[in-house]
Amino acid sequence: MADPRAFISFDADHNETHRRLFAGQIKNSRTPFSIQDWSVKSSLPQSEWEDIVKDKINRCDMVIVLVGKTMASATGVAKEISVARDQNVPVFGVYVDGANSLSNLPKGLQRNRTVGWDWEKIADEIDHAMTEGKNK
User: Fold this and answer.
1) Sheet holding 36-37, edge to edge
2) Theoretical Cys-Cys bridge with 61: which of 4, 81, 82, 94, CB 3.0 to 4.6 Å?
3) Residue 104 pLDDT exceeds 70
């Protein structure tokens, strides 16, 4: 099977650097997996953004949510999770920016599906995602 496609959901106002680091480490390190980053990387008008997000998420095998300390204010992330759920796309989270199991999670993201930035744990979540939802 080709590398899984992942839509990386993140708080664009606070965690763009973390998205770049996350995607860059996947490409440039010895992670135990490889994914394609299909996140939306620029600001767009709301209606155009929603159409592009729906299309991109539908083409992906999973959504990886980068959970930072300011997730409560990231309404776009909650909307992306909702789109993924509507399209039967598995979702899991990765704590970034000092966030941890006590941090707020965006609506729709399960605490038991959110892990620290540890490549083995992330690889386990990717393997799990590839056996659920539309990937069954």
Assistant:
1) 36-37, 5-9, 62-67, 91-95, 114-115
2) 4
3) yes
Residue 56 CB burial class (10 angstroms; 0-12, 13-18, ≥19): middle
DSSP 1-29: -PPPEEEEE--TTT-HHHHHHHHHHHHHS
Other residues' Cβ atoms within 10 Å of the Cβ of residue 72: 13
pLDDT band at 2 (very low <50, low <70, confident <90, very high): low
Taking the model in full, what pTM does it have? 0.92
What residues pair up with 64 in beta bridges, in sequence order?
A: 8, 92
Give the total number of structural domains in the chain.
1
User: In the 8-state DSSP scheme, what is residue 132?
Assistant: S
Q: In CATH, what number is assigned to the domain containing residue 55?
A: 3.40.50.9200
